[in-house]
Amino acid sequence: MLPKIGQTPYHFLFMAEKLTKRSEDYSRWYNDIVTRADLAENSGVRGCMVIKPYGFAIWEKVQQELDKKFKATGHQNAYFPLFIPKSYFSKEASHVDGFAKECAVVTHYRLKNTADGKGIEVDENARLEEELVVRPTSETIIWDTFKKWIQSYRDLPLKINQWANVVRWEMRTRLFLRTAEFLWQEGHTAHATREEAVEETELILDLYADFVENFMAIPVIKGVKSENERFAGALETYCIEALMQDGKALQAGTSHFLGQNFAKAFDVKYASKEGKEELVWASSWGVSTRLMGALVMTHSDDNGLVLPPNLAPYQVVIVPIYRSEEQFKQVEAKATELKMQLEYAGVSVHFDDRDTHKPGWKFAEYELKGVPLRIALGPRDIENGTVELARRDTLSKSIAQQEGLVQQVKETLDDIQNTLFKKAKRYRDENTREANSWEEFKTLVGQGGFVSAHWDGTVETEEKIKNETKATLRCIPLNSKQEEGQCIYSGSPSRQRVLFAKAY
Q1: Which domains does the chain have, with CATH numbers?
Q2: pLDDT at 89 over 50
């Protein structure tokens, strides 16, 4: 059927325009997919984005799965203020140093009409007694609150998570990857002992790695950050690092052992079983909408977004093929029956019964949006007891019997999930190389990917490597074996290899 007049000209032009190829301009390719697959768009506020319904549906799946994991490990959700008194940041020196250049500050609380009555301006008589920082992270406000909540060993461990937005005043922004405002979760915990806090930090690192690999189909390397790359105020920062298709690394999540730094800064103590007053030990951890960027850059191709089934807003779309109203009713009845069977088996399904677009247009739309599996169903299929299946990951098509379709769909979705992970892991492994000299290191960094090399452990050498190659020390892998060697830059002794890469 032809689309209805006046409803789709823009969409036809939009779909007909080809995506930029990865090989031509990776950055533009990424932006094309984010905007044209209806994930997000730039807003009228500099550096801030609008997450569109399709993109937010993916983020909701991220939230839901992580939230289940947090609660299963004893964490509770809470919410803390968006505004933080400026004085709170001065209580932990390294913390304020780490965030000072990114903080947005509220100085006034009222506007007024201009003298000519044609506009508005800040009322200078409405200056705040103490300026408020718009939340870049919540350690300070939360530890001020923890002081009230923690009195005794009976109050520990305290394991809190919040889903929130934060603001970090970035100068160069890119949708999902780096925006002035973004969404995230941040966990904050307090413990009686150092061992418990470290155990918590490592527990969350494993939780993140499990989620990103098994749910998002993105392989990651677990490690710890160098002193120079640690979270401001942490004694140790654990991280998961992923490799994107352009050979750049992306930090997918972090978990921080904070020691007693914030407990000292905010005087958070507890009475032990022996009645002795002790400072608590802490962790904090978080992942953000940056994961959405990782998702796009890990799996997508020149045809558009590619979604792993576990994250897809709908895993299957059914597109009806028909030429008459009578045929449509016949196809609709069968499609509804198949949809109910699939949904009963736990598969999310969308039946696209719009009469404003031709099937070919719909095929292109769902390919662009990365729907894992497409079912085409027409009168001839009903007659033959078959459907056409089209996989988004391989772009392959096959004919399947309607009888036993549910099982085949579930197996195919599982295979898509596994295939995407294996493909990404193969790319990561093929682009992780060892360098044993400075010249070799520079060559490999220029080729992209992870470079495993010896480093002497000093901040000075790390900074020189970064300045000369733009490669940063991504992590010291947790599974890294002790290996005597020489730093590729300074020639000083080294006992293990670390991972370098250019990064987002």
Answers
A1: 49-83+141-299 (3.30.930.10), 316-427 (3.40.50.800), 432-501 (3.30.110.30)
A2: yes
